[in-house]
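Example 244.
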Amino acid sequence: MIRLSEITKRYGQMEILRGVTLEVASGEVCVLLGPSGGGKSTLLRTINGLETFDGGTIEVAGLKLVPGTGIERDRTLHEIRKRVGMVFQQFNLFPHRTVLENVIEAPVHVLRQSKEEAIQRARGLLDRVGLLEKAHTRPASLSGGQQQRVAIARALAMNPEAILFDEPTSALDPRTTAEVISVMQDLAQSGQQMIVVTHAMSFAKTVAHRVHILQAGRIIESGTPEQVFENPQNPATREFLKSE
Ligand code: ADP
Ligand code: MG
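Predicted structure in complex with adenosine-5'-diphosphate:
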């Protein structure tokens, strides 16, 4: 379970998150939509401890995070990052390592798995995303869609409770987008808890359990895909959906 309660965050004078409350159940696929600049990336980064926040609480897998700094917070952040994976628009793979080395990096260094065990698991995960035959190549020789599937395998290698996706297909062409979406559908069906920021509306419509619209730092509408897409209550939601 992920529970955000009244999260606020500012950059200088600018209030970026203005009291965001959000619950994502275990096994739930939650899609965050909203206009550019609304705070979606900031919110994901806050959940994963990549950003600090100013008010509210974040609970992830029984760990509770409050604003501030200090050793206690650092320890909690370390635990949260072990349990929550993140997939970025620009893949963020290590360019000088092979695909397999990218996938085993964190299990070996953070989870202290033996190299043999990590390699065996990584091969299984690369097979799952359809890239086992690319295990010994470098990211630069792969298509964007293939790199993103490696990034997903890398996230899965940590056995995460949840995976956060920040516009995972925005840098991809339609064909490779479809390959990545198909892997994400497979994850969703296996019960992986996911929070997905995306413009891929068909994914939101067909895979999401719940959809939330984030605009100007506030969740202005939440519901099932049917509710939000077929019968939006907030005029701003209707405006946003028209523009997509
Ligand atoms: P979204 O992902 O919904 O497009 P972001 O979370 O990237 O929105 O950005 C929300 C707001 O926060 C934007 O106005 C953006 O300019 C601002 N912002 C994001 N990161 C920073 C930063 N590091 N410093 C200052 N302002 C930032
Ligand atoms: Mg963003």
